[in-house]
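Checklist before submission:
- one chain only
- standard amino acids only
- sequence pasted in full

Submission:
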Amino acid sequence: MKKTYFKYIVALSIIINFYACKKKAEIVSEKKALINVTAVAVQQNDIKEYLMFNGVTQYQKKENIRSNVTGYISRMKFKIGDDIRIGQSFASVRTKEQDALKEAVKIDSSLSKFVSPITVRSNATGVLTVLNITSNDYVAEGDILATVVQPKSLVIRVNVPYEYEDAIQIGSSCEIILQNGEVLTAKVTGTLPTIDPVAQSQVFLIALPNANLPENLNVQVRTIYKEDATAMTIPKTALQTNELLSEFWVMKVVNDSLALKQKVLPLLKNDSLVQVKSEGLKVNDLVITEGAYQMQDSTIVSTKKQ
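Returned file contents:
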């Protein structure tokens, strides 16, 4: 009898130890199964959504310097890129008639005043961008000798799709983003009253009279499209969606350990933030920004606050 009782006690002890070890293993396994995530608080921010357009620099005012007589260039000291002022001597032209008078001057000195080359003067102030002549070239009356651009007439031509005609207009503030990262602040100063028949876009002009930029430089033009000064925002990395982009949600952290799926409606966006609307989300709630991909509702997590 005692032997049978002893065997019963041993067997019961083995069973108790087995279930105790199993329970301990389950607890350890559960602890190991915790998902480490990073979470940030929902904030209230002034959020702006921008429109971005492509633009190109252009000089609106260009003047051609033309020859006023037919003859040969006797003097021309300018080169491309030089500055020139209105009324300044650009070149001198000697005519065949003047060459013929050189012999006559030896007989009648009073003719010497007609021998001097004829001066061609600039009719604009600016920078020489085109130079069509060199010394001793033959030119006819009316030929274009050079082209002068006026730096103060620099504008940016921006092609804006007609669907945004209410978002940008004369007087709208904008930012000019150059290829080197420099940002210039400006305003829309004009528009052309025509629409591109293919692209259905309209050209807007942004004057930059004080900018030292070359012509045909590609730039980006950014202007505010929509703004909300009291927006409830989350980082873009917290927003999740399905393949059809028909549903949006975030994983909201409760008690620093439980991740709940919370549906949201995204509104305005910028480079890093998204404005959301949700009945179950409020400012200072925690949402997961890292580690929530394909996470199921009511998942136990280990939260690291950012």
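Reviewer check: Residues 2-32 form the longest helix (31 residues).
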